[in-house]
Amino acid sequence: MDTLIKRDSLVPDSLGSRSDHRVLVGTKQLKKALKREKVLQVWLALDADPRITLELEQLCLQQNVNCAWVGKMTDLGRACGIDVGAAAAAVLPR
After folding, report:
1. Domain spans in the chain, listed from the N-terminal domain onward
2. What is the pLDDT of residues 76-87, one digit of tens each?
3. pTM to 2 decimal places
4. In which residue ranges of the chain is pLDDT below 70?
5. Residues sharing a CB contact under 8 Å with residue 89, sequence separation 6 or more, in sequence order
6. Which fold has domain 4-11+22-93?
7. Beta bridge partners of 43
8. 70 DSSP assignment
9. What is d(CA 86, CA 9) in angstroms, rounded to the nearest whole number?
């Protein structure tokens, strides 16, 4: 996996492997979480629809949440433990 998610020391190879946090996958759920909950970290895929990811990036800035960009939706999905691509993912506290 040649993406930021692999190189980021705060993120394990598999986002879903730690028990001290919850992984949230998907843009609709992430929008809700950014408005309601404490989000620790957000990852957005560069090859996702910019109309979606740029809105999420703006929400992250408003909520003061660290947002990192990754190369491909497929890599982000794999890191989250799903078999399809993901435009966005986040880590929330348990």
Report:
1. 4-11+22-93
2. 999 988 999 999
3. 0.78
4. 1-19
5. 15, 23, 24, 25, 26, 30, 42, 43, 76, 79, 80
6. 60s Ribosomal Protein L30; Chain: A; (3.30.1330)
7. 68, 89
8. E
9. 20
